[in-house]
Amino acid sequence: MATRVAVIGGGCSGLAAIKCCLDEGLEPVCFERTDDLGGLWHYTDHVRNGQACVMRSTVINTSKEMMCFSDFPIPKHYPNFMHNTLVWQYFKDYAAHFGLGDYIRYNVEVVLVKRAEDFAKTGRWNLQIRDHKSGEERTETFDAVLVCSGHHAEKHEPSFPGLSDFKGRVVHSHDYKEPSQYVGKRILIIGIGNSGGDLAVELSRVYLSTRRGTWVVNRVSGTAGFPIDIVNTRRLKLMLANMVPRSLLNSVVTSHLNKRLDHDLYSLTPSYPPTAQHPMVNDDLGNRIACGSVKVKADVKRFTETGVEFEDGTFEDNIDLVLLATGYTFGFPFIEKGVVDVKENRLPFYKYMFPPDLEHNTLAMIGCIQPLGAIMPISELQCRLATRVFKGDVKLPSASEMWTDIREKEAEMARRYVKSQRHTIQVDYIAFMDELAELNGCKPDIVELFKKDLRLAMHVLTGPCTPYQYRLVGPGKWDGAADAIYTTMDRVRFPLATRPLPEGSDIVRLQRFVLKIVAVILVMIILRIVFFV
Q1: pLDDT tens, position by position, 435-478
Q2: Could you tell me if residue 246 is left (phi over 0), alpha (psi between -120 and 50 degrees) or otherwise beta?
């Protein structure tokens, strides 16, 4: 059984890893190469090589109830979509509450992770570490390793004909901090993911070049203005969606997205349906296009010394700056060759965590996934599973069975998503969380819940699939989970209730409440027929 566990990285995944180790009676040692925790969410004005950082203005794309750790709800007065400073503060509060900081060694970098000489017998690892302050290098041995360094490390910088002749500046979004130095510039942004969209709406006089186009999703839904992930990430909705042919589902989603922003009209429509690629989350792009500060263009054909020609034959001259919002490639150069093999951003790991061919499952990658939802709860659940595997409480399948699961997932992703480095680690939030939870013994059983606690069952089935659901049963059960589920919408509403409402609003709310009660009764009748007849 593993006892001493190395945690590489002190971001959100690393913090969850430390806590899960402590929960399971293990001894964690976290190595963080910077001077503070938070990883990607620790904003600094200077560029940190090899480590991504949010922009000064970044607001998280997932709402607070869907992104929190499963036993530490975010304060009710925090906005539903938090500025990066509040996300970082939440991580600091989490670390302080559970005493995680005592286990973090700051300004220490892991240079090499290598199997110990007795690995075949013990599964242990040697870590070569470097202290950035003293310059000292030394080797320490651990029973297991949790790699929590994320997948936003190495910049992906594609080449284009003529780019080397371009006289203006070329900057990757990794190195962008805030807009003041770009005021008055004519800027070409290449890439239309979330970073490309954030850059486009923050800058003026922007040409936004895209190879495929994108579907744009707002943070706020059309359902009473609630966060879109609160509205859409629900078990009942997933069950219903899985009953519908994908072509029909895509048609419905396309119609819904075009009601808010006609993607044809705004030159955004991609050549793929909504469920075949990761959408852009952006609340302001349509407005910026409408007022002319952003112009959507085709893919780049070639650069000249001062301008750019696009694939549709159009040309823009006097470009001052090219911003590459082209994402990242990821790998693990600090891990011994032959242990981890990453090609074209593909991770051949069981549950995107465990290399299947190791003699001992004492190495786990955490957070190397791209969910349609928040990454923090998934990372936490991966850590909960990994630490119990290290202890010997959970036994993983054989190597051949793990490879079968890996290939099935790769085939499913290839079938559903457009071929892209962005979609190699795509997972469905609820389905993947349930997979991890089932392995770990903490997946909520809907049928059993209906037999024991009807109110809780209805919340779990029809309400937002919050991280608290995975603390209701099994290892790591939290006594506050049910109450956190019941009060989810209270915390969603709280930061919005900032003034007294005029007379008559109570009647409208009462009408909505009655409609909800009727809907709940109908759902209960249907479920009784399905599960108990």
Answers
A1: 999 999 999 999 999 999 999 999 999 999 999 999 999 999 99
A2: alpha
